[in-house]
Amino acid sequence: MAKYIAKRVGLAIVTIWAVATITFFLMNMVPGGPFLSEKAISPQATAALEAKYGLDKPLFQRYLTYIGDALHGDFGDSLKQRGRTVMDIIKMKFPVSARVGGLTVCVALLLGIPLGCIAALKRGKFLDSLISVVATCGIAVPSFVICTLLLYFFGVKLMLLPTVGLSSWKHFVMPVMALSFYPTAYIMRLMRSSMLDVLGQDYMRTAKAKGVAGFFILFKHALRNAILPVITYVGPMLAYTVTGSFVVEKIFTIPGLGGEFITAINGRDYTLIMGTTIFLATLIVIMNVVVDIVYKFVDPRIKLK
Amino acid sequence: MKQNPISFQLKLNPEDFLPATEEEKQSQVIMRESVSFWKDGMRRLVKNKVAMVSIAVIILVMIFSFIVPAFYPYSYKEQMKGANNLRPMQYSEEEQARIDAGEKVFPHIFGTDKMGRDYAIRVMMGSRISLLVGLIATGIILIIGSAYGSIAAFFGGWVDLIMMRIVDIIYTVPDILLIVLLSFALKAPLGNLKTVPGFGWVGIVGENLISIFVVFALLYWVGMARMVRSQVLMLKESEYVTAARALGVGNAKIIKRHLLTNCIGTLIVTTTLQIPSSIFTESFLSFLGMGVAVPLPSLGSLASDAINGMNTYPYLLFIPALLISLIILSFNLLGDGLRDAFDPKLKN
């Protein structure tokens, strides 16, 4: 177990390093720079700024410096938002996105798993068809369509919910609804098909024949086996959701990390791009390792090697 | 002749050796042709009502977006004076005057946008772009993904380990970052390319759209590669692969002829399900303003443009939104139907 975790962590570090390297060189290949768009700035001032942030040095030397600093936990200052470090910005924006994203994952799990189970248990009945239709539609409708429809009906026509910002619980309703649509539908489908698979297994019949109560059959024998694919999906999804959705943050003007990332890319804020990319990559990689370990606890038959 | 009671000897009579009657011959005739893989699958597909309806919807959308615009009296970039923000079926003053003079004017079925362009034709062109992106991108993904996945699985060991680690890394890079960076990075080279004779199409298609294709080619094949790899890992242990190798067939040919043809069911299904997700991604990018170049519409950019005027002209938003959901939904349902028809074991 310890050896396995050590190996996975080693691979994770290699992955993060590769992502950082790809991003660094690609980002610098792109024409334009962080100080080009600013108004009325003299060439001398630009040169001074570039010297201050070390942008005048050769690319490879900058790469080595950056990686060295990043290994010490120093991700540098933002090039555009003067006086703030990249860490400050992530610390400020991430909780906003994480709150919306965390709620989204909860909603998706709390709705998706039971509904998927019900559909599998009532296979071929009306309820199953209804759930399947809703799930297929949920996968087919892009999030920006859902966002705008919600905004139109609840925000503009009915005036029930506020449309901008995140200051009360009411503000969370629409973004969370819009974000959780797709994962809920996806989990429903996953849960239904894996539950159907498990229900057809021999051990289910054995359990029933031995007279295990329905409640225990469902929760101990069926659910525990059927939930594995959902865990695989939820891990990386959690990482992507808590770091913020670009579209939803743009439409509902939520001051989160997703929107910050787009602004950073468009403004060539090199350090902020690198910081957020490494942050996201680390989260995804950690979630993948966690998923594998959780697997082991849910299904002891799985051997980690 | 006396028979041993425990013998297995047959009791044969002289009648058993008579020629067969016509009736007996009839019963031996094969009534049905042997059912091939394709026929069997198609038979199951045709029975599936949902899949057939989705095919009909897809064909309708294709007619609507590829054939109808050729006969349509307006063009997607033609700006009509005084015809800004018309309601559906409404005419501008100038057009009304022409109608009063006895001329026939084709109605603006969906009205016009704020630049005075006919919205119906823009929606048609938009769905054409979205469909094209979906199909071409999926083609790219299919080629790269199946080649990569099958090579990784076939050679196994270190090759597999390294190739799959690369897949993991690509999976981790935020796609939006690569798309934006690539579209900026490719702008200058593509801009130069479009002045080279023979490459004029680059300008029409637009640099952004080409960078979307490049990004698909770089990023989105990983799912397909994983799928193919898992199939090939299973198939490469089959006897026919050993037999082919014993006969001296080369690696490349085994992969192409034996392994990939045997996972054709999975390939069809994954490809069909990839089309809607490519359309999804394109519309998402166009919505963020990183998709198609300006005069060309796509369903995503139409929806994005319509958001600002949502209060007054909600139909400008609803039409592309509805159409894009319809396209993605029917491709998804068709993919499910194909899966049930050609690859039943994939279902669970």
UniProtKB/TrEMBL annotation, chain A:
Residue stretches spanning the membrane: 9-27, 100-121, 133-152, 172-191, 212-234, 270-295
Location relative to the cell: Cell membrane
GO terms, biological process: transmembrane transport
Lipid bilayer topology: Multi-pass membrane protein
Gene3D superfamilies: MetI-like (1.10.3720.10)
Pfam family, one: BPD_transp_1
Domain ABC transmembrane type-1 residue range list: 94-295
InterPro entries for the chain: BPD_transp_1_N (IPR045621), MetI-like (IPR000515), MetI-like_sf (IPR035906)
The protein, known as: ABC transporter permease
Organism: Parablautia muri
UniProtKB/TrEMBL annotation, chain B:
Gene Ontology CC annotations of this record: plasma membrane
Membrane topology designation: Multi-pass membrane protein
PANTHER family: OLIGOPEPTIDE TRANSPORT SYSTEM PERMEASE PROTEIN AMID (PTHR43386:SF24), OLIGOPEPTIDE TRANSPORT SYSTEM PERMEASE PROTEIN APPC (PTHR43386)
Organism listed in the record: Parablautia muri
Pfam families: BPD_transp_1 (PF00528), OppC_N (PF12911)
Keywords: Cell membrane, Membrane, Peptide transport, Protein transport, Transmembrane, Transmembrane helix, Transport
Family designation: Belongs to the binding-protein-dependent transport system permease family. OppBC subfamily.
Name of the protein: ABC transporter permease
The keyword Cell membrane appears for this protein: yes
Protein transport listed as a keyword: yes
Chief localisation class: membrane
Residues spanning the membrane: 50-72, 129-154, 166-186, 198-222, 259-277, 315-334
Domain ABC transmembrane type-1: 127-335
GO BP: any one term: peptide transport
Location in the cell: Cell membrane
